[in-house]
Design brief:
- It is a single chain.
- This protein is an alpha/beta fold.
- The chain folds into two domains: 8-123 and 313-326, ATPase, nucleotide binding domain (Nucleotidyltransferase, domain 5); 135-306, Nucleotidyltransferase, domain 5 (2-Layer Sandwich).
- It contains 13 helices and ten strands.
- Helix 4 packs across helix 13, helix 6 runs parallel beside helix 9 and helix 9 (222-237) packs antiparallel against helix 10.
- 52% of the residues are buried.
- The model has no long low-confidence stretch (mean pLDDT 95).
- The structure holds 5'-O-[(R)-(carboxyoxy)(hydroxy)phosphoryl]adenosine (KG4) and zinc ion.
- 5'-O-[(R)-(carboxyoxy)(hydroxy)phosphoryl]adenosine is lined by residues 16, 141-143, 169, 172-173, 184-187, 190, 279-281, 283-284, 311-312.
């Protein structure tokens, strides 16, 4: 199939607070349009589901129109629709699913309901070409922290481990709050930590003894978050100033140390030589640097999509839809459900 013959797929993502509409032709990205409601959630310190759903409703049609205009594509040229079927916020997913079904029916094209986590992996084909099979994927965002063995992103995704409490991004957001930094906190901690030193030895969850034996590829960040809070409170109670940059750098180091250590251990354990890191936290500069250094020493090839493709977007959904078509996977039924707890083993709805 030549690039010009490859199907034109429009992908819709609404699992959290980003209304994403991406258009791809085969594995080529044409446009990635985003409308975010993050500013509306900032004063609550976290995403408010009902506010997110309403924002998706307002943003959906304008974002589809903007995507088509920027790509120079007319809706009737679209060959298939892809949409995030889950996991995510139920009400938010429903808005995307309803829009996708309406488009598929009116255009008379197939619809692919896809898994959000698998889409975070699939997006990298748009930047770095075909995915090695198998690939190891470390997905780290505000909603998920998972290690996945991915023999085939369109059909076979196997969870090796996940967080047993907070997601990595959630820990960044909560610690940022303790340090008086704005929401979402990850980018602020990343920035502030550049002026700090790793001076505090915060705990690395599930990395020793029985914990490690029982949770070899799982993560835990809630003890770390509590340790940072307690450290800051003790300091403030003693009337001493809090060295925000050093606390941020030390916290960040504890998170990225565990993430990279476990990801590389999983690659070794499974005999996989390619590691992909995705999700919003993959934008973290220290995670990128430490992963690059440790992968190089371990002889593992590292793939990290550019930050705009790591955070939630419509292009990742379109990419997985297009890959599914290229592999001849069946389309979804028009009554595909929006499944807030869709398991990662279900790549398509
Ligand atoms: O993938 P994403 O946009 O949405 C979810 O599916 O959650 O990820 C958002 C998360 C937030 O928790 C945010 O604080 C975190 O990614 N994040 C970062 C950075 N940029 C975004 N965390 C650490 N360092 C960053 N540079
Ligand atoms: Zn995500």
């Amino acid at each position: 199939m030549t690039t010009r013959d490859a199907p034109l797929v429009l992908g819709i993502e609404t699992s959290c607070d980003e209304t994403g509409v991406g258009i791809v032709r085969g594995q080529t990205l044409l446009v990635d349009a985003i409308a975010s409601s993050v500013a509306e959630h900032a004063r609550f310190g976290g995403v408010v589901p009902e506010v997110a759903s309403r924002a998706h409703l307002d943003a959906m049609v304008p974002t589809i129109e903007r995507a088509c205009a920027e790509a120079g594509v007319r809706l009737r040229e679209i060959d298939a629709i892809a949409v995030t079927a889950g996991p995510g916020l139920a009400g938010a997913l429903l808005v995307g699913a309803a829009a996708a079904k309406a488009l598929a029916v009116s255009l008379g094209v197939p619809i692919y309901g896809v898994n959000h986590l698998a889409a975070h992996v699939a997006v990298d084909v748009l930047e770095h070409g075909p995915l090695p099979e198998p690939t190891m994927a470390l997905l780290v965002s505000g909603g998920h922290s998972s290690l996945l063995l991915v023999p085939d992103v369109t059909a076979d995704v196997r969870p090796l481990g996940a967080t047993i409490d907070d997601a990595a991004g959630e820990a960044f957001d909560k610690v940022a709050r303790v340090l008086g930094l704005p929401f979402p906190g990850g980018p602020h901690i990343d920035r502030v930590a550049r002026d700090g030193q790793v001076t505090i030895d915060f705990p690395r969850g599930l990395t020793t003894g029985r914990d490690l034996a029982r949770h070899r590829f799982d993560f835990s960040f809630s003890g770390l978050k509590t340790a940072v809070s307690r450290w800051v409170q003790l300091r403030a109670a003693a009337g001493e100033s809090v060295p925000v940059a050093d606390v941020a750098a030390s916290f960040q180091e504890a998170v990225v140390d565990v993430l990279t250590r476990k990801a590389i251990a999983a690659c070794r354990d499974q005999g996989v030589s390619d590691l992909l890191i995705g999700g919003g936290v993959a934008a973290n500069s220290r995670l990128r640097a430490l992963a690059a250094a440790r992968c190089e020493s371990a002889g593992i090839a590292l793939r990290v999509p550019r930050p705009g493709l790591c955070t939630d977007n419509g292009a990742m959904v379109a990419a997985l839809g297009a890959l599914s078509m290229a592999k001849g996977r069946p389309a979804s039924d028009l009554d595909l459900p929006a499944d807030s707890s869709m398991p990662v083993t279900a790549v398509r709805a």
